[in-house]
C-alpha cells in the first residue's frame, strides 16, 4: 500500500525527529571518542555540549572534524529517514535547535560566545 508522504502524521514526525536526534548524537559521540583515542585524549561529555573545548587547538580540531563527519552522516540519514526534500531543512534545523537547547541545559547558561581563540580569550 502506498501512503502519501505529505499527510499530517504527528507520530511519524516525532519518530523522525527522535531518529535524527539519535543519529546525530550517536555519530558525534563515536566520532569524538574515536579521535580522542587516536590523539591520546580522554573523552568527556563536555566535548559534545560545551564550547570550552575550543581552548586548545587539538580539542578544537577533534570537535570540528567530528561535527563535519556528523553533518555528512546526518545528511545521508536525513534523506533516508525524512524522504522529502521539502522537509530536510526543517528537520536539520530541528536537530541543531535541540542541540542548542541540550547544550543550554548542560552548561546551565545560554551559550553567548560563538568563537573562542585557541588561547581561551
Layout of helices and strands:
Blueprint lengths: L9 H30 L6 H4 L7 H25 L3 H23 L14
Helix pairs in contact: 1-3, 1-4, 3-4
Number of helices: 4
Q: Name the beta content range.
A: under 5%
> Which ranges are low-confidence, i.e. pLDDT below 50, for 5 or more consecutive residues?
116-121
Considering DSSP H and I runs of 4 or more, what fraction of the residues is helical? 55-70%
Please give the number of β-strands: 0
- Listing every helix as H and every strand as E from the N terminus to the C terminus, the arrangement reads HHHH
Overall shape:
globular
Structural class given helices, strands, pairing? mainly alpha
Distance separating the two termini: 59 Å
Average pLDDT level: 83
Largest sheet descriptor? none
Query: Mind telling me the C-alpha Rg?
Result: 17 Å
Describe the structure.
The protein has helices spanning 10-39, 46-49, 57-81, 85-107. By secondary structure, it is an all-alpha fold.
Amino acid at each position: 500500500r502506498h501512503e502519501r508522504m505529505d499527510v499530517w502524521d504527528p507520530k511519524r514526525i516525532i519518530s523522525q525527529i527522535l531518529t535524527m536526534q539519535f543519529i546525530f548524537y550517536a555519530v558525534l559521540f563515536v566520532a569524538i571518542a574515536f579521535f580522542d583515542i587516536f590523539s591520546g585524549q580522554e573523552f568527556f561529555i563536555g566535548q559534545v555540549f560545551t564550547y570550552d573545548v575550543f581552548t586548545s587547538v587539538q580539542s578544537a580540531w577533534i570537535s570540528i572534524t567530528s561535527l563535519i563527519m556528523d553533518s555528512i552522516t546526518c545528511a545521508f540519514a536525513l534523506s533516508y529517514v525524512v524522504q522529502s526534500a521539502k522537509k530536510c531543512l526543517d528537520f536539520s534545523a530541528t536537530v541543531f535547535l535541540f542541540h542548542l537547547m541540550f547544550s543550554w541545559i548542560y552548561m546551565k547558561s545560554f551559550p553567548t560566545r560563538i568563537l573562542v581563540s585557541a588561547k581561551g580569550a
